[in-house]
């Protein structure tokens, strides 16, 4: 297998190509007033990890139970996730904690032995799927920690062609799962931006959402049953389409982030591979007009697979990302289109809407026609939607190269009802801009609406600023806290799909209330009284 980067996103031999794209570079330099020099990460040889505190005899005994690794690369690539705070510390060599053993169980029996042994020896455990968490969900917080990497538990155990379900092990990666389902004529329909490097178990543990969730639902809608192992046993929920047998234990496990147990298997709900797909783009005069068009489409019971409205700042960035220096004809067409749009009243507040329809051919055509009548904007054809679909998993690679240039870049997300969405959008954006400005540096915030529901939608923010060398984490923390406070004060949830992890744990009580948080603590005490599993996550 190709190795993953220890300093960034994805595979070692893959990059976005920012340095070759002068238009994007000049855009960033103009917006942020960047210094021309690059700030490169430490070399691998310069990274120092904390000394191992687990005795050698325990490591030897562990190796009798399952495959274990203790080398530097394995420990380094399993010590944190892929958020800005994680990568900044790793690149600076500021690693205070790292797992001392990385275990790779190949069966549930091996996993059970590891859990039992860890409890006996009072060792801590961090479950690890793809390691793509951006909220500290897989960070090592204690000495004496074993990281359990689930990627060898990666089989599809069965497919029920009659019921349209499949049972799969939790360590299977997104592309492998989807490829095997496709071979049988099915799709799960779950495509988060982390799709290429994240696992089924990770999606379930964090209540993840894919980019096609408007049609197919979030991961909690896709799970019919699951199995979770905890230090003294396991819980297996029933494989039935629905039940009224009291509170839904399955839904208590989904989103538990490895703090109650380790999810090992899931029965997932499948969809036939869509007969037809139509991805396209529209331009609207402003964000409010676009939001109203999107709400009207969804509430008319037209359900696109993808419904993504970018605000003016993100729209400008998308146009830069999609620009071509090599094709003169393409540039000429774009200039002509810009002139036409200006004449039609589209100015600096113009917003891009990407719609994607999937399903039976006739229904796709009909839904597109109905949506086109509703939208008060200009149809831009298939190209914007198809380009977005083609490149939708590549943006995290761009972030790595922005970090090389001394750029702070991260994301956060929320959700609220349609009646509140413009207020939440503007107040949170304003809070982030103020936090960036308080450090006397240039920056910008871009946002899109996605993951739409009849009642409302999610808001996804990307914030970008010039880093202050030596104060990067302080600068990031100030932005994050200011934004989260604005979200809570203006009717949003602290997370729509990233999860809680370490970074949102301070606000769990604000989200769930005192009694709700006490209930979560009681669940933890019931299944993991020794606080072995993923300590510090979800609840302080």
Q: Helix and strand layout, with pairings?
A:
Blueprint: H1 22-32, H2 56-65, E1 67-69, H3 72-77, H4 84-92, E2 101-104, H5 108-121, E3 124-128, E4 145-149, E5 156-160, E6 165-169, H6 174-183, E7 186-187, H7 200-206, H8 213-216, H9 219-222, E8 223-230, E9 233-236, H10 249-253, E10 262-269, E11 271-272, E12 276-284, H11 287-299, E13 306-310, H12 312-321, H13 328-343, E14 351-359, H14 361-374, E15 378-381, H15 383-391, H16 395-404, E16 407-417, H17 421-437, E17 443-450, E18 456-466, H18 472-489, H19 508-527
Short characterization:
This protein is an alpha+beta fold. 38% of the residues lie in helices and 20% in strands.
What does the model show?
The protein is of the alpha+beta class and 540 residues long. The protein has four domains: 41-149, Uridine Diphospho-n-acetylenolpyruvylglucosamine Reductase, domain 2 (2-Layer Sandwich), CATH 3.30.43; 156-272, Uridine Diphospho-n-acetylenolpyruvylglucosamine Reductase, domain 3 (2-Layer Sandwich); 276-392, Vanillyl-alcohol Oxidase, Chain A, domain 3 (3-Layer(aba) Sandwich); 396-503, GMP Synthetase, Chain A, domain 3 (2-Layer Sandwich), CATH 3.30.300. 38% of the residues lie in helices and 20% in strands. It has 19 helices and 18 strands. The chain has a seven-stranded antiparallel beta sheet, with helices on both faces. Strands 5-6-10-8-9 form a five-stranded antiparallel beta sheet. β8 (223-230) and β9 form a beta hairpin. The longest helix has 20 residues, at 508-527. Residues 324-330 have low confidence and may be disordered.
